[in-house]
Amino acid sequence: MEILDPDFIGKSVLALLGILISYMEQLSNGKKTGIKYLFKNEYPSILLTVIVTLIAVYLRDDIKEIFVITNIGAVTLGYTGSSFFLSVLKSKSPKNENI
Prior knowledge:
By secondary structure, this protein is mainly alpha-helical. 70% of the residues lie in helices and 0% in strands. It has one domain. The N and C termini lie far apart (39 Å).
């Protein structure tokens, strides 16, 4: 799989648009409630979401048994952020009964 693969580029763009939709919605909701939303406070969260989302899209063939990244899946992954993908990974990880 290559970085310049059209499927990767397309799904990455859709995932990044999902991230943008999510943060624009938060900004809109903040304005409605009178809460000042500062992107400078959100940089670590945004960066983490972008990194985890792009890694998931890149590894889509390797993770297809636990999460299938279709076009709508890419937007959903971006919109819900890294929390959704990380919760899917956590739910699929082997459980240690001895703990």
